[in-house]
Amino acid sequence: MNALDYLVKPVDPQRLEESLKRVRHGTEKGEINAVHFAPSDRVFLKTGKKIQFIPLKDIAAIVAEKNYSHIMTIRGKRHIVHSPFNYWERLLPKDVFVALDRSLMINRYHVQSWTAQSRTAELYLMGVQTPFHLGRAAYQRFKALKVTSYRTVNTIIADTGRY
Predict the structure, then answer these.
(1) Residues 6+ apart with CB under 8 A from 66
(2) What are the start-end ranges of the E strands in 16-96?
(3) 24 and 47 share a domain?
(4) I want to staple 105 with a disulfide (CB 3.0 to 4.6 A). Which of 29, 52, 62, 91 is the partner?
(5) CA gap 101, 74 in Å, rounded
(6) pLDDT tens digits for range 131-145
(7) Does one domain contain both 65 and 123?
(8) What are 39-85's pLDDT values in tens digits?
């Protein structure tokens, strides 16, 4: 979940006024819709009549299909939601989620392996059975990530203190 500001009881009138100014200012500039997810957040997914929260760290890939997105998790689940690809591009943390082309975004920490094939590659992600075919431009973007090996979330937390 995301919040623009937090107020703690008892509410200080001056702090409340500052928070309201921040909201008004953000609304005028259109920044309210530009709130970004942090890697530790959970994303709200509405798939048909089912509503659920999924931790961002569980998302392996997002694949676009017109105005829908396929959310693929490391647990082998696929969720289809009515959200365009650019919605995810704007909201997800760019140091974790990388758009390799106009319809594929991956969680860089869930790369399991890849097989180079001349100028293209097959990319395997944790929990996703079918590999992703990366064309020439997408493969170049992937190589620029400098992903050297599969790293677990626990390794990332131990190395950096965050995820």
Answers:
(1) none
(2) 42-47, 50-55, 59-65, 68-73, 78-81
(3) no
(4) 62
(5) 21
(6) 999 999 999 999 998
(7) yes
(8) 778 888 888 888 888 999 999 999 999 999 999 999 999 999 999 99
